Amino acid sequence: MALNDNAGGAMRLLLVEDDEMIAETVLESMRRVGYAVDWAQDGRAAELSLDNGVYDLVLLDLGLPGKNGIDVLSSYRKQGGEAPVIILTARDAVTDRIRGLDAGADDYLIKPFDLDELAARARALLRRRTGQKQPIYTHGELTLDPAAHEVTKGSLPITLVPREFALLQALIEEPARVFTRAELEDKLYGWGEEVGSNTIEVHVHSLRRKIGVDQIVTVRGVGYRLKRCG
Ligand code: CA
Question: Is the confidence at residue 4, as pLDDT, over 50?
Answer without folding.
Answer: no
